[in-house]
Amino acid sequence: MRVVSINRRTVERGALAAASGLLAGYAALAAAELTASLVRPQAGPVTVIGGAAIDRTPAALKDFAIRTFGENDKLVLQLGILATVGLLAVLLGVFALRHLRTGAAGVLSFGVLGAAAALGRPDTAGAADVLPSLVGAAAGALVLYLLVGKVGGSTDVSTATSATSTSGSDGPPAAWNRRGFLLAAGVTAIASTGAGALGRALTGRRGQGATASRAAVRLPAPASPAAPIPAGAALRIPGVSAFTTPNKEFYRVDTALVVPRVDAGTWRLRIHGKGVSRPRSYSYAELLQRPLIERDITLTCVSNEVGGPYAGSARWLGVRLSDLLREAGVQAPSRGGRADQLIARSVDAMTLGTPVEEVMDGRDAMLAVAMNGEPLPFEHGFPVRMVVPGLYGYVSACKWIREIELTTFDSYDPYWVKRGWARRAPVKTQARIDTPKPFARIAAGTVTVAGVAWAQHRGIERVEVQVDDGPWQEASLAAQATTDTWRQWSFGWKAAPGGHRLTVRATDGRGEVQTELRTRTIPDGASGRHGVFVTVG
Ligand SMILES: Nc1nc2c(c(=O)[nH]1)N[C@H]1C(S)=C(S)[C@@H](COP(=O)(O)O)O[C@H]1N2
Ligand SMILES: [Mo]
After folding, report:
1. Residue 55 Cα, ligand 2 centroid: separation in angstroms?
2. Distance between CA atoms of 253 and 313, rounded to whole angstroms?
3. What is d(CA 40, CA 436) in angstroms, rounded to the nearest whole number?
4. Nearest CA to ligand 1 atom 24
5. What does the alpha-carbon distance between residue 380 and residue 494 come to, in Å, rounded to a whole number?
6. pLDDT at residue 518 above 90?
7. Within 13 Å and on the Cβ side, how many CA atoms surround 119?
């Protein structure tokens, strides 16, 4: 009987200590959130540790995360960090039962780690960025010290045992103060929840200037409007990707754990570097006053697997980038210009490297201000982003851009290149079957096989479908809007009962047939042909 009561008491103390640890972790995160809302939302510990994790993740693992979790990759990472914090908090809580001061000091040391991560972020705003982690850790350490102290402090199990046995019941040891504990725990929970909510509200208010500046934008009419989309460009076949992807459905790929909210009123773009004889800086209003071009352009991500979803087409409005570069005195390398690489830097310190030659070769490379008739959504780069037809997003489509530096490929490697991706990455020709879906069960008869194909800036000349090992059969093509957009296609298949494999391939505007050679997305984009297996019956 006595043994049972001792064990129960031990287990109870362990559980209370674990709960204290969790509460300490909760208090730490809440205090950090509140502090970050005052200092800089991007300096919060979960964000800086998450950012450091993203930057250090090997390219293959990052690619796996994008493939597996898709656009939830950041959520999964954040939940992973929270779960780790929770686990550490429980362990520290139990540890603090015997080593109260050391346990509390342990919490502080995690604060120092967070502070170091904050200072190591490429977009760090300086010393103040350490505050969220340090204030959070101090709050966590204090809570751990107070709560575990009330559970029984550093009285070790043998003391508790003798206390239990001398009292002759399973009553509490002298150091155990149930009312005090519950009160302190309750106050901690309420105060932390309040601090966290206040932090969130303040962070929300911070973004209000940006939100208001976006709401106030009046988009000018383009000096050079997009050609109307030909009536025959959209086939209206159920299941086929819409020709123009609505903003809400447009894929999103970036490293930003907190979407930058930039106030267009204070935003500026700087152009400088090698071969820039007239360095320039532009405000948002100045860009809007310039003649704007409007173009339909399909954007694709290098991390898109064969048949994958990371492609979207939008109508972009913006300033022709080559005009700005010429104004700054920049010349294309083929005309003797000294810079062959353009580094775009964003407000969140992302760097993307684009070949100057392509930007100045007459294609519609632009600094976009609008997407499908509205100012850029925050997720897609408000106030200004780059778009260059024919190049994967990571070498061209800088969102939240704030600086353009002219340099050379030899002297500077941008973010993704440092992580194993190719310096130059033109979009590879791809065709995708949107319908039928993989492993669909369909009725025999004529089945419409359809999808999209893209080879930006080269255009799509032909799409062919192969059933099982049969001959390649020509699909019918929708009208081509421009060579910079994807093209829909369809094929009427006389489907006989049984299992069948459908494969598609495209030929680009230069007559080059899409290769069947399968490559991974790293280092310069996946190649190979998309196929789906279906059952007819
Ligand atoms: N600032 C910034 N810009 C960025 C990125 C990023 O991580 N940060 N990702 C790039 C990549 S890899 C792609 S594919 C495109 C995606 O643009 P979207 O999210 O608007 O579709 O943005 C590019 N621009
Ligand atoms: Mo990308």
Report:
1. 15
2. 15
3. 47
4. 398
5. 42
6. yes
7. 10
